[in-house]
Amino acid sequence: VQLVESGGGLVQPGGSLRLSCAASGFAFSTSAMSWARQAPGKGLEWVSNIYSDGSTYYQDSIKGRFTISRDNAKNMVYLQIESLKPEDTAVYYCASQGVRGQGTQVTVSS
């Protein structure tokens, strides 16, 4: 199982980002995929899930700003983040099969 995140960076408050996760080594199209994040000095926090049937679930605090999606043809999962806030600053991880990637840093600052 390999998960490789990308798309993070430094963004001003109110900006947007699309995080990507390239998955390999397992049956992607039939697997649930997750995004989690870890803010500085805090524990790992679940953000969102997307299942093989396309159903999605979000942490209440980010509903309406985050959108998870998947492309089974490309073995990719995405996290679109709108209206970024400083409190969204974190390392964002893609996870599945009990494994998570190396993460991509998102920093929201003016």
Rg for CA atoms: 13 Å
Spatial gap, N to C terminus: 37 Å
**Main beta sheet strand tally, sense and closure:** 7 strands, mixed
Q: Please tally the β strands and state the result.
A: 11
Q: What is the strand and helix layout of this fold?
A:
Elements lengths: L1 E5 L2 E3 L5 E8 L8 E6 L5 E7 L5 E3 L7 E6 L4 E6 L8 E7 L2 E2 L3 E5 L2
Parallel strand pairs: 2-11
Antiparallel strand pairs: 1-3, 3-8, 4-5, 4-9, 5-6, 7-8, 9-10, 9-11
Summary keywords:
110 residues; four-stranded antiparallel sheet; mainly beta; globular; seven-stranded mixed sheet; single chain
Structural account:
The chain is mainly β and 110 residues long. The chain contains no helices and 11 strands. It has strands spanning 2-6, 9-11, 17-24, 33-38, 44-50, 56-58, 66-71, 76-81, 90-96, 99-100, 104-108. The strands form 2 sheets. Strands 2, 4, 5, 6, 9, 10 and 11 form a 7-stranded mixed sheet that branches. The model has no long low-confidence stretch (mean pLDDT 97).
Provide a concise account of the structure shown:
The protein has 110 residues and is mainly β. 27% of the residues are buried.
